[in-house]
Structure formats: C-alpha cells, structure tokens
Design a protein that fits this description.
The chain has 288 residues and is an alpha+beta fold. The chain has two domains: 162 residues, Jelly Rolls (Sandwich); 108 residues, Homeodomain-like (Arc Repressor Mutant, subunit A, Orthogonal Bundle), CATH 1.10.10. It contains ten helices and nine strands. It has a six-stranded antiparallel sheet with strand order 1-2-8-3-6-9. Strands 5-4-7 form a three-stranded antiparallel sheet. A hairpin with a 2-residue loop joins strand 4 and strand 5. Helix 4 crosses helix 5 and helix 8 packs across helix 9. The longest helix is centred in the middle third of the chain and has 24 residues.
C-alpha cells in the first residue's frame, strides 16, 4: 500500500508519500507531475529524470518541478514531498532557497544532491518531523512543516554550492551566481515566446555579447544553446505525456512554422518528433 499524508488549506496543498519496491509503480503514474517535488532516495535506486538516467551511489535528494520522472529500480524506502507554490514559495527573500532558487529550474539541469552519511541522517530526521506534524494535525503544523522543508532546501543548497562552486573545479564564480540563476528563472518563464539571446539579455539588463561571454568564459554552452535545449526538452515532455500533434506542439512552443520546428527537433535530437514519440514510448531510449 502507498502511504500518503496530505495537508490542504484553501489553495495550499502539501503531500508526504513513502515508496518502496512494493508500491513504486504508484509513483510512476505521474500523479505528482504538476507539483514541486523533493524526493529522497537511498543508494541503489535507478531513475530517469527528463530522459537522463541516474543510479544512486549514495542517499540523494532530487529537486523537481515539471520534469518527467520514472523510477526503474527501488531498494529500500524513498520519500516524496510534493506541494504547490501556494504552500511554499518565497519570491523575494531567501532567493537561493525559493521554489525558483538554485535547486529548481537550474540552468545546468542538476536536479540531485548526494548526501554523506551524517547529512542523510539529518535529512531523514527532518522528513520524519514533517510526517509527525502531518499525523498530529496541530494548529501550528503548517508553519512547522514549512520550516522543515526550508531546512531541507537550505542544507541541500549548501551542499550543491559546495559541489559546484566552492571547490577547485569551479563551474560558477560566486559573484556571477545571480546572473546564471536569473537567466534560469527567466528562461523557465519565457522559453515559449522568447527564443533569442537578446530577449534574455534585456531582462537581465546586460548586453547580449556580455551574456554570451559570461557563458563562454566558463566553457559552457552558449545561452542560445541553453534556450534551444529548454525548448526541445519541453517538446519531448509534450510528446511523451500528451497526444498533441506535432503541429500543435510547435505552436505551443512559439513556432508559427511547424516545418521549421520539425527540422530543428530532427537536427538536434537525431529523430523526427513523431519517431521520437513512437520509439521512446515503446522503450527505446535516446541519449539526449
């Protein structure tokens, strides 16, 4: 049986679900797809996030929004927090730990954080505290749950920064972090209608060449490539999740010429949209 505890109050909704080998098929029904999600999995799990395969060597946290998520192999219990933006989303203060912070909509598409043994114990205790609050149903439970969620995100954000910023193989200088985070946020909001680097440079109040140079200086793909990748990722999600025809998907993603979109997809993915949907849903995976 799937164990799920739910908190609901007006527009606010928060859920706590426990999965294991016996009930993991319930997870793969994608009933949580539209929620913001924090997933804790022990070592030994195999899962796919947005067409990328992961095998956990250590206990790990995955931070997800609209990603395609599927668990292929489960060993031991995993825990999923799933909630809407009305329950937890700090828009102005605490930018790094908001629902648009470092761990969500990340420009580098790094949705997971590996935990050392001591960190895993602390995080599991926080999950247990959340479960206790949901079971007790005290009048202050909502705020306590939100506090525990924030602690989980803060700890994971620190770990992510240590892995990706504060080490010898620096990917993003700390003084540039806001630019990349804001680019990620704007891209997530506007990718359907804004397809040019100049559009995002304008939103960031910098010159297009400056934005491009910031990416080039860190040996990253160009901002234009990140824009294309985000569009194609959404196209793959729509092909996988829905029965929308390719023409409608093209319009949905801001392309008035479906033939141009079809050529772009085929050139970048190596398969036409129609063949991608047919082959991926039948079990053939593309390394994209």
């Amino acid at each position: 049986m799937l164990e799920t505890l739910i908190f609901e109050d007006n527009y606010k909704k928060f859920g706590f679900s426990i999965f294991s080998e016996e009930n993991v098929e319930n997870f793969n029904e994608n009933k949580f797809r539209t929620d913001i999600k924090v997933l804790f999995v022990p070592a030994g799990y195999e899962l796919t996030v947005d067409f990328n395969h992961y095998k956990t060597q250590r206990p790990s946290l995955f931070f997800l929004t609209n990603q395609l998520l599927n668990i292929e192999k489960a060993e031991g219990e995993s825990v999923l927090l799933h909630y809407n933006r009305d329950f937890y989303c700090i828009q102005i203060h605490d930018k790094e730990v908001a629902c648009d912070g470092l761990l969500f909509h990340n420009v580098f598409e790094i949705p997971n954080v590996e935990l050392e043994d001591r960190e895993a114990i602390i995080v599991k205790d926080l999950f247990q505290n959340i479960k206790d609050e949901l079971e007790w149903k005290d009048s202050s439970a909502e705020e306590m749950i939100r506090t525990y969620v924030k602690q989980i995100i803060i700890r994971a954000t620190r770990k992510w920064k240590k892995q990706n910023i504060d080490n010898d193989n620096v990917r993003i200088p700390s003084n540039e972090l806001d630019v990349f985070r804001d680019f990620s946020r704007h891209l997530e909001i506007h990718f359907r209608e804004k397809h040019n680097v100049a559009d995002y440079a304008d939103l960031l109040h910098i010159a297009p060449k400056t934005l491009t140079h910031k990416f080039k200086n860190l040996n990253l793909d160009s901002p234009n490539q990140f824009i294309i990748n985000r569009i194609l990722l959404e196209a793959k999600r729509l092909l996988f999740y829905t029965d929308k025809p390719v023409k409608e998907i093209a319009y949905n993603l801001g392309y008035e010429d479906p033939a141009y979109f079809n050529r772009l997809f085929t050139n970048k993915i190596g398969s036409t949209p129609t063949n991608f949907k047919r082959n991926y849903t039948s079990g053939k995976k593309y390394n994209t």
